[in-house]
From TrEMBL:
<feature type="binding site">
    <location>
        <position position="381"/>
    </location>
    <ligand>
        <name>Mg(2+)</name>
    </ligand>
</feature>
<keyword id="KW-0067">ATP-binding</keyword>
<feature type="binding site">
    <location>
        <position position="598"/>
    </location>
    <ligand>
        <name>ATP</name>
    </ligand>
</feature>
<keyword id="KW-0808">Transferase</keyword>
<keyword id="KW-0418">Kinase</keyword>
<keyword id="KW-0175">Coiled coil</keyword>
<dbReference type="InterPro" id="IPR003414">
    <property type="entry name" value="PP_kinase"/>
</dbReference>
<feature type="active site" description="Phosphohistidine intermediate">
    <location>
        <position position="441"/>
    </location>
</feature>
<feature type="domain" description="Polyphosphate kinase C-terminal">
    <location>
        <begin position="509"/>
        <end position="675"/>
    </location>
</feature>
<feature type="binding site">
    <location>
        <position position="474"/>
    </location>
    <ligand>
        <name>ATP</name>
    </ligand>
</feature>
<dbReference type="Pfam" id="PF13090">
    <property type="entry name" value="PP_kinase_C"/>
</dbReference>
<dbReference type="Pfam" id="PF13089">
    <property type="entry name" value="PP_kinase_N"/>
</dbReference>
<dbReference type="InterPro" id="IPR024953">
    <property type="entry name" value="PP_kinase_middle"/>
</dbReference>
<comment type="similarity">
    <text>Belongs to the polyphosphate kinase 1 (PPK1) family.</text>
</comment>
<keyword id="KW-0547">Nucleotide-binding</keyword>
<dbReference type="InterPro" id="IPR036832">
    <property type="entry name" value="PPK_N_dom_sf"/>
</dbReference>
<feature type="binding site">
    <location>
        <position position="411"/>
    </location>
    <ligand>
        <name>Mg(2+)</name>
    </ligand>
</feature>
């Protein structure tokens, strides 16, 4: 027993959180290399890789750099790497990944040229095309540009996070001795199209290339020696002192302004344009270490490929995924409203295979139903033109009591949520912002309705956000019920969030930061006991990320007892499977495909009396102790069977699943049965309504 404890505490039994995330982003990049994906979708995966990486640098790398600056040198509790060691390992791994990304970009670009989608260099254009582009530059671009000289009187400008810029080296044409070169910065306008179409075909040049070609027009009397495109990524994590914030809305808005100008954490430059003097100058001015300099062989900021995808996809439908229309919910009959259906039976929806519209419809029905007295809902991320928000506003205007918890601290959605909070308050909703030092990440709605002189409550619980747009490509699960005790739990939960009361004792719900970790540990312990008696122990857990050490150690304990543990973890996984004597009964799969696997499901075999829980929470330390999360059981056998079948299908995936080895690396699962679980679920949903 002591030896087992020693092994499960060893750093060799864990993956580092940051390196595991980079491994996940590598799996995203592998989708760009997969020739089974349509060509434009492969281009889009390159864009997703870049977007993911931006956030990683703005938050995770920035956080590690802050620790180093503060002199914090304590190793992390799993891999035993100090912040400096983690930054060094990140740089080594990520430079390799970025090199692979640009190799793939070139490969996909070559294949696009075969389809007559071409990106041209300015030097390869005809005189006639150049003349047309010069006119476009003079009329549409030149008036927007602002050259910023840098000298003793004009300091290096404060450049926006993720902005694209040009660093220009100049010589005075009239000076006899050209020893003193001058430097200027020109920001590439963010509101102009990055890809400029140059003819009736899908032929393009990049905006920054066009500006560089005619940049001399901004500096009359000077000769342009070099022009280098560069991009800065800044620390964008927010530091909100909630205890001293009298108005959280204003505090969030103030921090959002700071985010644009945080400390630089990464500098990207183009290999073809690099000027050693400019590189040294930028590294010095931005206080960037050389390991955070990325010189790439291609355009900077490949997140732009997502806009390019939207720009060309309508003319190349054979190069994108087959159109998928989410199907009607299996549990709702054609002649029923959502409310009529949920009064008869509990409802289960699997998005995006089943439409999110029933949730929007339920909110719309509730807003206009004269018998509905109150609506309460948590909002973490919503869409830009949200039907949910529209229904909440209309419900308040119709005199119903509407309480909405808007999580202002939802990372990178703070500005949207501040705006929604203001609009909801103007409409008459009672808006609350959660609890000090905790993010409210739970997904729950309570509708209170008067029915034949009695109160009836409809509860929706989900694994994903109330966002009708992301529900089209995030896999999530929804559960709706009118069961009395669920209604009581929901009422007590909202009262706990909005008022002054001790944490409720729930009938069915489990809540973080108090109970979810302990409840999961209890269920794992129970599974171990069942296995000791019946030798058929099994746990299946599906989540986005797994980092929580107490739960990882408990999974190790289950494996050592002989319980078969199947984990489907899309992203970060600090647990290492297959270590003899520690985790040899654990299998870890990651599925990265067309849809973003987002649902959280926890299943315990319990000798055939299968227990299934859905949750808003991943098994991350932050979710267990720093967020308000909910986990809830599924009791109906028909729903449990559906969820089990979904998990079983995913565990048999042999086309989009990667399996983790005991050294933390991932490789594709291959078997005689070629199975894409997402495609199969798509086909099953279509066949039900064929």
């Amino acid at each position: 027993m002591e030896k087992q404890k020693e092994v499960t505490n060893s750093s060799a039994s864990y993956n580092n959180r940051e390196l595991s995330w980079l491994s996940f982003n590598k799996r995203v990049l592998e989708e760009a290399a997969d020739a089974n994906n349509p060509l434009l979708e492969r281009l889009r995966f390159i864009s997703i890789f870049s977007s993911n990486l931006d956030e990683f640098f703005m938050v995770r790398v920035a956080g590690l750099k802050d620790q180093v600056k503060a002199g914090f040198n304590r190793p992390d509790d799993k891999s035993n790497l100090t912040p400096k060691q983690q930054l060094a390992a990140i740089a080594t791994f990520n430079h390799s990944l970025v090199e692979q990304q640009y190799d793939l970009y070139k490969q996909v670009q070559d294949e696009l040229e075969v389809q007559h989608i071409c990106l041209f260099q300015m030097t390869n254009l005809s005189a006639e095309t150049l003349e047309t582009l010069e006119q476009y530059f003079d009329e549409q671009i030149y008036p927007i540009l602002t050259p910023m000289a840098i000298d003793a009187y004009r300091a290096f400008p404060m450049l926006l996070n993720k902005s694209l810029n040009l660093a220009i080296q100049l010589e005075d044409e009239y000076e006899q001795e050209q020893h003193q070169k001058k430097t200027a910065i020109v920001q590439v306008p963010a509101l102009l199209d990055r890809f400029i179409q140059i003819d009736e075909k899908h032929h393009y040049v990049l905006l920054e290339d066009l500006i560089r070609h005619f940049i001399y027009k901004l500096f009359k009397g000077y000769r342009v020696i070099s022009s280098s495109t560069f991009r800065i990524t800044r620390n964008a994590d927010m530091n909100i002192h909630e205890d001293s914030a009298h108005d959280l809305l204003k505090e969030i808005e103030k921090e959002l302004k700071k985010r644009k100008f945080g400390a630089a954490v990464r500098l990207e430059m183009n290999a073809m344009e690099q000027d050693p003097k400019i590189i040294s100058f930028l590294l010095h001015e931005l206080e960037i270490h050389e390991k955070d300099l990325y010189i790439v062989d291609g355009p900077l900021d490949l997140t732009c490929l997502n806009d390019f995808y939207d720009q060309v996809k309508h003319d190349y439908e054979h190069l994108i995924y087959e159109t998928f229309i989410p199907q009607p919910a299996q549990d709702i009959h054609e002649d029923e409203t959502v409310y009529e259906a949920v009064r008869k039976r509990d409802l289960f929806l699997h998005h995006p295979y089943e439409s999110f519209e029933p949730i929007s419809d339920l909110m719309r029905e509730a807003a206009d139903d004269p018998e509905v007295l109150a609506i309460k809902q948590t909002l973490y991320r919503v869409s830009g033109d949200s039907p949910i928000i529209a229904s909440l506003k209309r419900a308040a205007e119709n005199g119903k009591q509407v309480t909405v918890l808007v999580e202002l601290k939802a990372r990178f959605d703070e500005a949207n949520n501040v705006e929604w909070a203001k609009q909801l308050e103007i409409a008459g909703c009672h808006v609350i912002y959660g609890m000090i030092s905790l993010k409210t990440h739970s997904k729950i709605t309570l509708i209170v309705r008067k029915q034949a002189n009695r109160i009836e409550r409809v509860v929706h619980l989900g694994t994903g956000n109330y966002n009708d747009q992301t529900a089209k490509f995030y896999t999530d699960m929804s559960y709706l019920t009118t069961k009395r005790k669920y209604g009581i739990d929901a009422t007590n939960f909202f009262n706990y969030l909005s008022g002054y009361t001790e944490k409720p004792d729930f009938h069915h719900l489990s809540m973080a930061p108090f109970d979810i970790r302990n409840d999961l540990i209890h269920h794992i312990d129970q599974e171990i006991k069942f296995h000791e008696q019946f030798k058929n122990g099994r746990i299946i857990a599906k989540m986005n990320s797994l980092t929580d050490k107490p739960l990882i150690k408990k999974f190790y304990e289950a494996s050592q007892a002989g319980v078969q543990v199947d984990l489907i973890v899309r992203g970060i996984c600090c647990l290492r499977p297959g270590i003899p004597g520690v985790s040899e009964n654990i299998r870890v799969l990651s599925i990265v495909g067309r849809f973003l696997e987002h649902s959280r499901v926890y299943l315990f075999h319990h000798n055939g009396e299968i227990n299934i829980f859905l949750s808003s929470a991943d098994l991350m330390t932050r979710n267990m102790i720093k967020r308000v999360e909910l986990m809830f059981p599924i009791y109906e056998n028909r729903i449990k069977e559906r969820i089990y079948d979904i998990l079983d299908l995913m565990l048999r995936d042999s086309l989009k699943a990667r399996q983790q080895a005991n050294d933390g690396t991932y490789s594709y699962v291959r078997s005689d049965e070629e199975l894409n679980s997402q495609l199969k679920l798509f086909e099953q949903a279509m066949n039900l309504f064929a």
